[in-house]
Write a structure and sequence with these properties.
Blueprint (H helix, E strand, L loop, with lengths): L8 E5 L5 H8 L5 H4 L7 H10 L4 H4 L2 E7 L4 E11 L4 E8 L9 H15 L5 E7 L3 H9 L3 E12 L2 E11 L2
Parallel strand pairs: 4-5
Antiparallel strand pairs: 1-2, 2-3, 3-4, 5-7, 6-7
């Protein structure tokens, strides 16, 4: 699908071979804050998820894609979640796994491809994301792609016993 191919990366469906990669991401406590994870995931549960990852977004209300470079290295994940067909909207999340692969434009290119896919192929009217106010990298990423800050949720996320404010960003199709 040409829509999901960029200059440096492409987005692809999850494969059984992604088990270890996803297991590492889901069990990395340093990113639990952005993924809203509370407990570790077993390989068994992730395998079950992968076994059902082929299901249609209209049925399961989510889509997770791998971000890969043209050397076929998996760099990260990008998600569509809370897919709401009636109201033509969905949430979006992006993660580039390795720190040395961040700030190289991979997340930005992946988000651009996903936005185009959502508006062109899924017929969505709007996308949104939730970002803690101290996550400057994500704020920069989503703002660069045209997302606008539309609200602040005070004391929204509890992290290590303290509450953080969270911004709501939104992108409405022209």
């Amino acid at each position: 699908m040409i829509t999901l191919k960029g200059e440096h990366i492409y987005l692809r469906a999850l494969e059984p071979e992604d088990l270890e990669f996803i297991h590492d991401i889901e069990n990395d406590e340093t990113i639990w804050e952005i993924s809203n994870t509370q407990t570790p995931y077993s390989k068994y549960l992730i395998k079950q998820y992968l076994d059902h990852a082929h299901k249609d977004i209209f049925e399961v209300k989510q889509l997770r894609l791998a971000i890969s470079n043209y050397n076929k290295d998996t760099l990260g994940m990008i998600d569509i979640f809370d897919f709401d067909f009636k109201n033509s909207r969905a949430g979006v999340g992006v993660l580039v796994k390795e720190i040395n692969n961040r700030d190289k434009g991979f997340g930005s290119e992946a988000l651009k491809l996903l936005v185009n896919y959502c508006f062109t192929h899924l017929g969505l009217h709007q996308l949104y994301c939730n970002i803690t106010e101290d996550n400057q990298a994500s704020i920069k990423l989503f703002t660069k792609q045209g997302f606008k800050k539309v609200g602040l949720k005070k004391d929204w996320t509890k992290i290590n016993g303290s509450y953080k404010n969270e911004y709501l960003f939104q992108l409405i199709k022209n």
